[in-house]
TrEMBL record:
This is BlaI/MecI/CopY family transcriptional regulator. Keywords: DNA-binding, Transcription, Transcription regulation. Belongs to the BlaI transcriptional regulatory family. The keyword Acyltransferase does not apply.
Length: 129
């Protein structure tokens, strides 16, 4: 990952790719973004920037009415991007993980999710032994 900070416009595109279950072409991204803050003529600049930052990749070439178009997918999940944002902060250290995890757990009100977190911790403990 070359650069992990996204502009607001890039984030809008990533949010769309994260919530769509298939690769999207540039024209599909434009048509599925009615509330976009960017001009539709900027889509190719935004896509090239996301490709350069390695946030998206070309998934396929799809036939359109007249020719072929590239389709794109995200290279990491929204959760992985959030973790990348946290861990790339200058003041981040492994010692801050318990505070972060505690804050995240405070957001949970589902026993099954708590059990999943416990299972992740248990597996990591076993892995480290």
């Amino acid at each position: 990952m070359k650069q992990n900070s996204l502009t607001n416009s890039e984030k809008e595109i990533m949010d769309l790719l994260w919530t769509t279950d298939r690769p999207l072409t540039a024209s599909e991204i434009v048509s599925l973004s009615p509330d976009r803050t960017w001009k539709k003529s900027y889509i190719h600049l935004l896509i090239n920037s996301l490709l350069e930052k390695q946030m998206i990749r070309i998934a396929d070439f799809v036939r359109t009415e007249k020719n072929y178009a590239r389709s794109f997918v995200a290279t990491l999940s929204a959760a992985d991007y959030a973790i990348l944002q946290l861990t790339s902060q200058k003041n981040f250290s492994p010692e801050s993980i318990p505070v972060l995890v505690s804050s995240l757990i405070d957001q949970i009100d589902d026993v099954q999710l708590i059990e999943k977190v416990e299972e992740v911790v248990r597996k990591k403990k076993e892995e480290l032994k």
